[in-house]
Specification:
The complex is a heterodimer.
Chain A lengths: L2 E6 L8 H9 L11 E9 L2 E9 L8 H5 L5 E3 L6 E3 L12 H5 L22 H5 L5 H5 L5 E5 H8 L18 E4 L9 E7 L3 E2 L2
Chain B lengths: L12 E7 L9 E7 L2 E7 L13 H4 L1 H6 L8 E3 L8 E3 L2 H19 L4 E4 L13 H10 L5 E2 L5 H11 L16 E5 L3 H4 L4 H9 L3 E5 L5 H6 L2 E3 L6 H14 L5 H7 E2 L1 H9 L9 H8 L3 H13 L3 E5 L9 H14 L62 E2 L3 H7 L11 E4 L4 H4 L3 H10 L2 E6 L11 E4 L8 E4 L7 E5 L12 H12 L9 H10 L7 H7 L1 E3 L9 H5 L13 E2 L3 H6 L24 E6 L13 H4 L6 E3 L1 H6 L7 E5 L4 E8 L7 E5 L36 E7 L1
Helix pairs in contact in B: 3-18, 4-18, 5-14, 9-12, 9-13, 9-14, 12-13, 15-17
Classes of the chains: A alpha+beta, B alpha/beta.
């Protein structure tokens, strides 16, 4: 089985609850590491503008780039559910390696502020699955824009759109994600992209 | 007494059902995980629930950092540096309370009780027991104090709602949006300011409603919901509404039968709108020059609003926090009335419910607290009636100093025409340096006082001015009952205590109880927390079983598409409007009798008094609530702060002209103050307008330049004639720093 996410971009208000709920559940301090990020995409020129949000966890790719590039096999894809996990003890650390971050098109591998921080990332809330709960981002979303589960079931329920504003599907890595995209019907030009937390201005 | 002892330290995780009590009105439920007496995690209370509006937001999930923040005040402190410097030393509770009691006695004996200024709002804790009432009761029993009047958020809508409709419950409940064909969110951003409305608006949109946002910003509600965004210059909204009335009247689109049956004064308004009264026809072209909204856009929206019935004109509070802001609210109410959109499903009376609750929640806020409260205040022997018009917030504080004038009253006292000289400030559940007008003036004023005592959780910009600083605790360290407010889905929560109070913190009531002993007051408090809460529950009809509420943590009052003034419309003979005429007052004789040209009997547009300054300060500055904090609460929480650091929104046209880049530092200034702040250069704001999210903490550097991004550095303390805080009429200049 492959586990994955569903994201309804038309229901996302950019409230960041998923980001904070994740940090609280997994005890990730404020700082550079965030297992979930929310990107704000601003398009168009005043007054003809369009805004969409993209929630980005780890997409637990079918062919994860991070697993292939890790020189010490610290990252593995579980056979049982396809969830990609990291063995932080084995990880060489940010100062020595970072190959996983360079390889991942979605910035899923995250590093804290500490010296030679070990890689950490979304594990789809393995501990919550064990209690038959969905990930905290899914259960936390006030607008119910997120879901998680067997990708097969998610596709059956929500369709198989691989498109969303601000997202590029990687045929090579095959991310386990289904979208309901928010469409910019006018084809406006991207003006500004910002990623939270940290207000990293991308363009 | 605060307790340092842990309830049986075990390693098992137990969960506690509770809720936020912060000042956003949502009252979302939380399930707090506690291990060994410590909060370890937060979850939604019931993730499986289909109820859309009960899920907490980022602020609720960040509550653990609020409780255990490194900046949490741990013990009573005495100031050792200058006021505002933030230098303190630890003292014992006994010493702190002896000092406060001694100062209260000294100031009262020397100057009389009116020299004691109790500065508070209901915002500290929106709950029925703990909060500002504790200190107000203490001071009343001690001999009284000076208070503030006017609701800083919404005195404009309160004024206009009462003038037009005779009451201030003027919102169809959110579940009624589903019945609207057109929804105009005018100066209202519920996705950030009243989040629990968002699912209902989304449902209405999915059902086919057209949603139009009129706002200087393409805010999150516009991003989420808008079919159309109409940017408008701040402080000019009344002109556009009046021009919409022009189009409707000129084209005969008004609901004449409704007007004839339910309103008075339409013809007087018509004379003004068409220009018979003053020779100026209030055409869309007239409004375009004022508002910056194209005439055709104004005319189209007017036609849509008149024709697409039922239509909800949900006109929020921000545009009313301006010079003559009450005219905007009057104009929107009148527009709803002349199109017959009042008292019907899918309509809306044109004013977002001012203060008050649907009949499902009959509790009114009590004087001085703005929140339904069970803790008795007693009478204030030093009461000084405020110069209220008949339409001001009579149900709020009716005495003392206007909330915009606190600093001015402290600085000028009797010599400045105020009823008293003020010598001491007692501040609880409030952050006046940050959240009231003109931060620098407030800071100056607090430096002038003989004594300042503050109850706080954190070293806020106001706490830095305390002589004695007393640590209080969070909602998760005590029991309470809370209710959602105005125009959010009605519900009650039991705010279950999750952990014992940490450090040496106490509740406001515990602090005041110990002060009462020292002041010789013997009848301060005769009940335990549990007894008070049982009494609170008894006062609410919807709460049938206290223990059941405590166990479940939440009681939802069924939503029933409540429509205000429905009875007046369906059966007018037996249900007159609660106005003097018994009808919707487009023309108010009561206002006419005031003989104040600035408060005319019909809605009118007045140019804001800030206008002459526009040569010097060419950019308008507005502020509004942000979703990463609640007013100034939660602004210090690291998890929230990193999401959207405080920045000045500015359009690329204005930024380019000043050489300011996205993320680059900007210098912002006007006559009130100066600020250095990064810019957020975005197409989502109207050229000529800048924006600062409200609530960022005032942090002046050694030159007095604010580095924190507090919007009130630039606001003035002149209230609108109807009583509104005119913060959105601010003007600034911006330069590259």
């Amino acid at each position: 089985m492959q586990t994955g996410f569903y994201f309804d971009q038309t229901r996302c208000t950019g409230c960041f609850t998923c980001v904070v709920a994740c940090k609280d559940w997994h005890d990730v301090p404020a700082g550079p590491a965030s297992w979930m990020r929310v990107t704000t995409i601003e398009k168009g020129k005043y007054p003809d503008v369009f805004v969409a949000f993209l929630a980005t966890p780890c997409y637990h790719c079918l062919e994860p780039a991070c697993v292939d590039v890790c020189p010490v096999n610290a990252i593995t894809k579980r056979a049982k559910d396809g969830i990609v996990v990291v063995d932080r003890e084995a990880c060489l650390g940010r100062d020595k390696c970072q190959l996983c971050l360079e390889a991942c098109p979605y910035d899923a591998p995250q590093f804290g502020a500490e010296e030679n921080a070990k890689m950490q990332k979304c594990d789809l809330c393995l501990d919550r699955w064990a209690e038959h709960k969905k990930p905290i981002c899914v259960d936390g979303c006030p607008m119910r824009a997120l879901d998680a589960g067997s990708i097969k079931e998610l596709r059956a329920k929500y369709g198989d759109s691989r498109e969303a504003e601000g997202f590029v599907y990687s045929e090579k890595f095959t991310p386990s994600i289904v979208f309901k995209p928010k469409k910019d019907t006018k084809g406006l030009a991207v003006q500004r992209i910002e990623v939270a937390p940290g207000c990293r201005i991308v363009s | 007494m605060p307790s340092r002892k842990r309830s049986k330290a075990d390693d098992k995780v137990r969960t506690v059902l509770t809720s936020c009590t912060c000042d956003c009105g949502g009252r979302c439920t939380l399930k707090v995980h506690v291990k060994g007496g410590m909060i370890v995690r937060v979850e939604n209370a019931d993730a499986a629930s289909e109820v859309l509006h009960l899920r907490g937001c980022a602020r609720g999930f960040a509550y653990r950092q609020r409780v255990y923040g490194s900046d949490r005040l741990k013990y009573p402190m005495r100031r050792v540096g200058a006021r505002g410097e933030g230098k303190f030393e630890r003292i014992s509770w006994d010493e702190a309370l002896d000092t406060v009691a001694g100062e209260l006695k000294r100031v009262k004996a020397t100057y009389g009780p009116a020299a004691i200024f109790y500065i508070t709002v209901g915002a500290g804790s929106n709950s029925m027991l703990h909060g500002p009432a504790a200190t107000e009761r203490l001071l009343n029993l001690f001999g009284g104090c000076t208070k503030n009047w006017a609701v800083i958020s919404c005195e404009g809508p309160i004024f206009a709602a009462q003038a037009t409709y005779g009451g201030f419950i003027t919102a169809n409940t959110p579940d009624d949006y589903i019945n609207s064909r057109l929804i105009i969110l005018w100066g209202w951003n519920p996705v950030e300011a009243l989040r629990s409305n968002a699912p209902f608006l989304k449902r209405a949109k999915d059902a086919g409603a057209r949603i139009v946002c009129v706002d200087p910003r393409y805010h999150l509600s516009a991003a989420f919901l808008a079919n159309q965004w109409i940017p408008i210059r701040p402080s000019t909204d009344a002109a556009m509404l009046i021009a919409m009335a022009y189009v409707i009247i000129k084209e005969g689109l008004q609901d004449q039968a409704f007007i004839d049956a339910y309103t008075v004064g339409f013809d007087r308004y018509k004379d003004y709108v068409l220009g018979k009264e003053d020779g100026i026809a209030k055409t869309p072209a007239w409004a375009e020059a004022i508002t910056g909204v194209p005439a055709a856009t104004i005319a189209d929206l007017a036609r849509d609003y008149a024709r697409m019935k039922p239509a909800a004109l949900v006109a929020g509070w921000g545009p009313g926090r301006t010079a003559y802001g009450e005219q905007y609210h009057r104009a929107s109410a009148v527009l709803a009335a002349i199109t017959g959109n009042v008292g019907i499903h899918g309509g809306y009376p044109g004013i977002v419910a001012s203060l008050g609750y649907t009949p499902a929640q009959p509790l009114l806020p009590i004087p001085g607290t703005s929140y339904p409260c069970v803790f008795p205040l007693g009478d204030n022997p030093a009461e000084h009636p405020a110069p209220l018009t008949p339409f001001n917030s009579w149900f709020y504080s009716t005495s003392g100093i206007h909330i915009c004038k606190l600093a001015d009253a402290i600085l000028r006292g009797k010599a400045g025409g105020y009823h008293t000289d003020l010598k001491m400030a007692y501040i609880t559940n409030a952050n006046p340096v940050n959240q009231y007008t003109d931060s620098n003036k407030m800071a100056r004023a607090l430096r002038e006082l003989e004594f300042v005592v503050v109850h706080e959780l954190f070293m806020t910009p106001t706490a830095k001015f305390a002589d004695i600083l007393l640590p209080v605790n969070t909602a998760l360290e005590r029991n309470d009952i809370s209710t959602s407010w105005l125009l959010t889905p009605p519900l009650y929560t039991y705010v279950n205590k999750a952990i014992d109070p940490i450090y040496e913190s106490k509740t406001d009531i515990e602090i005041c109880e110990e002060l009462a002993d020292r002041l010789g007051i013997t009848n301060y408090n005769d009940k335990t927390e549990d007894e008070w809460l049982r009494e609170a529950a008894k006062s609410v009809e919807a709460i049938k079983d206290y223990d059941d509420l405590k166990r479940k943590g939440v009681l939802e009052v069924e939503l029933s598409e409540y429509v205000p003034f429905k009875e007046q419309i369906e059966d007018p003979k037996n249900n007159p409007f609660p106005t003097t005429s018994g009808k919707i007052e487009i023309y108010s004789q009561t206002l006419a009798d005031l003989n104040n040209p600035q408060l005319p009997p019909i809605p009118k547009y007045f140019e804001g008094w800030e206008k002459p300054l526009i040569e010097k300060y060419p950019l308008r500055l507005m502020s509004a609530h942000a979703h990463t904090h609640v007013k100034s609460q939660f602004h210090n929480i690291p998890w929230l702060r990193e999401l959207e650091p405080q920045r000045l929104w500015i359009n690329p046209i204005d930024a380019r002209a000043r050489g300011i880049s996205d993320g680059g530092l900007a210098k912002v200034f006007n006559d009130q103050g100066q600020m250095l702040i990064p810019a957020r250069v975005t197409e989502r704001i109207m050229p000529g307008v800048t924006f600062l999210p409200d609530g960022a903490w005032f942090a002046p550097d050694e030159n007095g330049v604010d580095r924190g991004g507090c919007a009130n550095v630039f606001t003035t303390d002149k209230p609108s004639p109807g009583g509104a805080f005119a913060c959105n009429s601010s003007l600034v200049q911006v330069e590259k720093a």
